[in-house]
Amino acid sequence: MANIPAPRMKNLQPDDLEDIETCMIECDLLIVGGGNAGCFVAIEAARIDPSLKVIIMEKAEIKRSGACAAGMDAINTYIPAGKTPEDLVRWSRAQVGGGPLREDLALSNARELNEAVHDLERWGLPILRDENGNVRYRGKWDISIHGEQLKPLMAEKAVQSGADVYNRVVGTSLLMHEGRCAGATGLGVRNGKFYIFRAKATVVSTGGAGTLYKSYTADSTDSGAQIWMCPYCVGSGYAMGFREGAELTSLEQRWVATRSKDFCGPIDTISVGYGSPIINARGERIMSRYEHLGGDAAPRYIRANAPMEEWLAGRGPCYCDTTHLTSEDSAAMMRDYLNERPSFVLFLAARGQDVTREPVEIYGSDPYILGGHTGGGYWVDMQRMTTVPGLFAAGETAGGNPNKFVGGCCAEGKLAARGAVAYIKDLALAPLDTARLLREKKRVFAPFLSRREEGIRPVEMKERLQRLMDEYAGGLSQFYRTNEERLDYALRHIAVLQSQFVYLRAKDLHELMQAMETMDRVDVAQAVVHHLKARKETRWAGWQTRTDYPEKNDVDFDCFIETRREPATGIIDTFTRPYKQIIPGDRYTA
Amino acid sequence: MPPKVDIRRCTGCAGRMESCCEEACPGDLMAVHPDTGKAYCRAANECWDCMSCVKNCPAGALETKIPYQIGYYKATLRPIMGKTSITWKCRDIYGKEFSYTCINRTR
């Protein structure tokens, strides 16, 4: 067991592929991505069978990696006494406008949820309780924590579980044998090595995909990554499996949320946690326009879209009205932010803003693909296995099951571990396909080996993609709207980008990692556009808005949109799967 | 925006396999320059402002700044890491100071 530290960056100057060292490592279970879900996969696998050899391939350093790196101020789902897992699924369903969602997955997650939160508390996470020792709820389902150390705590337990953590190794592709996943390859971002991890089962838990769309705060100097979701989760986990034919679901249900304006800070902390209403420029409570849909408790996509509708109608800017707060409330709110997004407090200080006198301005976020928040991700079975045998997904990478958040991603890590451990029973490592590995090694190192030739920097292609997605595939500058013609335009240009991967150049290993990320972004963006094209209706305005099909169409689209890319040709097939209601009752109310 | 490095305080974590800031950064953005022996951020535009590096710096040499395009000159926020708590010292553009302490782990 070891948390294997990375070296300082090596100044390598390789001239051909022979100069690149290859490391081959064998294990029973490979986890790609040691974030929230990935740590729980490792811990649960070791609990089931301590003799298993478990490896975590981690792009950053496990103590501060992924979306929880900065901390967290709440666990957004924890089932209170008197409520049931079925109640939570009913709420989740209503939050996504009645679905479709995978109620089977949601229910199994909900049954596992509270125990996972108890694990975190046992490990040392401060969960706020009242004088009687009861957990302090800030909304219906979310509880307050002081989670500045959330990620270090999870990481410590993952390392203690016996897993070997390969830090600063970024996943590039899956190993395949006769249609099943047999491990993955990785790039050593600091040492420049090519890693081959052979595994009986592989779990991808690389988080979601931020940075596909341009953020409106992206200036040309210093604020290109001032987004809400971790900008280092770029969808690599989706891309690796998609390229091998794994099916993706519901990518068109993008996550868009109301965030603080100019600095993408969380707003639920204020609106839910401190009962602050959303108002427009005239001081009108804008959710009163949506009374028939639940008002302040309307589904999340409606609440996310409402301030943007006010802007469009000429009634912006909009605010979260904090002026009723006392200075004690304000101090408590600052503590919450410091535990999750400390630089938001710095932002307020840089605006000289006292929130008890001046309300917090709000705006929409750039869209994200996040299977822990909305439905986008791999289509998985109850064991969390994707449609590629031996490839499992957990957390943001697993789709169909929205509103997981931190606790649900912990719970799903456990479920995926159980599925994967059962799968590898009596299974041997698959033989290696050396020709394929050589092709992948060439692909990965091509931008580095050709660094002296004229070409494209990874950041240039990233920014081209981000603007394309923003303007044509329903980004924030277009108030999330798109249509068939714009989506076709996006696909044409994405195809050009894919044909120009060969011109990517990387002057060092960091840029080489960025070249991998950019190719992954482009491949995931292509899938996103196919999903947006296929849903010819508007089901979740804001998350998914079609100006050419502005109404909801239950006859044709009360179902899941799926994509599968043919590995040999790269041709993408789009199809549907039926929604199955398991929890009876009205789908639109909790 | 990248953390500002106080080069008088930064030791480059000489003797450590990795410097503390390059270990902490989730985006692989921090490095120590081989010529100067001091930390720097390799891509200002890619920093998430998560402050992981600032928290992990044993020399107190790093400070996160909000880009001017977003927030005005000059506010500061400094974390002081305890064993089971964190204290934040904040100063706004008018010089008003705040301090917040949170228990961040129970063990």
Jot down its keywords.
A: 590 residues; alpha/beta; 8-stranded mixed β-sheet; 4-stranded antiparallel β-sheet; 34% helix; 16% strand; globular; B: 107 residues; mainly beta; Alpha-Beta Plaits; two-stranded antiparallel ribbon
Q: What can you tell me about this protein's structure?
A:
With 590 residues, chain A is of the alpha/beta class. Helices cover 34% and strands 16% of the residues of chain A. Chain A has helices at 36-48, 85-95, 103-123, 150-160, 236-242, 268-271, 300-312, 327-340, 342-350, 405-423, 434-449, 458-472, 484-499, 509-534, 554-557, and strands at residues 2-4, 22-32, 54-58, 74-75, 143-144, 164-167, 169-177, 180-188, 194-204, 248-249, 258-260, 278-279, 318-320, 360-364, 377-378, 391-393, 481-482, 545-546, 559-565, 572-578. In chain A, the strands form five sheets. In chain A, strands 1, 2, 3, 6, 7, 8, 9 and 16 form an eight-stranded mixed β-sheet that branches. In chain A, helix 3 crosses helix 10 (405-423) and helix 11 (434-449) packs across helix 14 (509-534). Chain B is mainly β. Chain B has one domain (3-103): Alpha-Beta Plaits. In chain B, 9% of the residues lie in helices and 30% in strands. Chain B is built from two helices and seven strands. Chain B has helices at 20-24, 52-56, and strands at 3-5, 30-32, 39-41, 62-64, 76-81, 85-91, 97-103. A three-stranded antiparallel β-sheet of chain B has the order 5-6-7. In chain B, strand 5 and strand 6 (85-91) form a beta hairpin. The longest helix of chain B is centred in the N-terminal third of the chain and has 5 residues, at 20-24. Chains A and B meet through helix 8 and helix 9 of A and helix 1, strand 5, strand 6 and strand 7 of B.
